[in-house]
Amino acid sequence: MNEGKATENPESRFSVALVSAARLPGVRIHREAYLRKALARYCSEGEIRVAVEQTPAAAGISLDVLDKAANDSIRYETAKVSALSAAAGLRVMFGTQSANAAVGKVAEMTKQTFAKSVSKAIPVVGAAISGTLTFATYRPMAKRLKKHLADSELAKPTPRVVVVEAEEVYEPSVVAQAETPAADETAVAVEGSPSA
Description:
Layout: H1 3-7, H2 10-22, H3 31-39, H4 45-53, H5 63-92, H6 96-106, H7 109-150, H8 172-179, H9 181-192
Helix pairs in contact: 3-4, 5-7, 6-7
């Protein structure tokens, strides 16, 4: 019995697979370029600068704006990966032409015509199926990732304490009235006099 395999847990295998996938070309995302592109439609250059230097939450970017930017990215990436999947399915399915030639030699003329029609439709159907399957699996997983990232601590604004030293500011006329007791006594005398 191989003890090394028995002690390996699924999480470590997932981590190894994730690290291996991250090393593939085109998998890594340059954070600064992504944030600049995703937020350009919704934020000022100052907000984008702070979002790149710290986090979008620290830049004061609202959750609605982040949600819109995330949905735009998900739509774009889903369309791109589905189109690539469909193109890959179309290209691989072109191998059916050799099968069509073999069927054509053996079959009658009507069968041969039918086989040619079917062999031309198969790559298109295969591409549509491939693209649809990719779309149906990629989009929900992208939405789950968006929700997970939105719930992470980096997405939440950090409370900041701002210390401001206060200065006492006096208006000269208010200070003069407050410091003169005669003005207060006069006012009391006027209020308390029998003519008032």
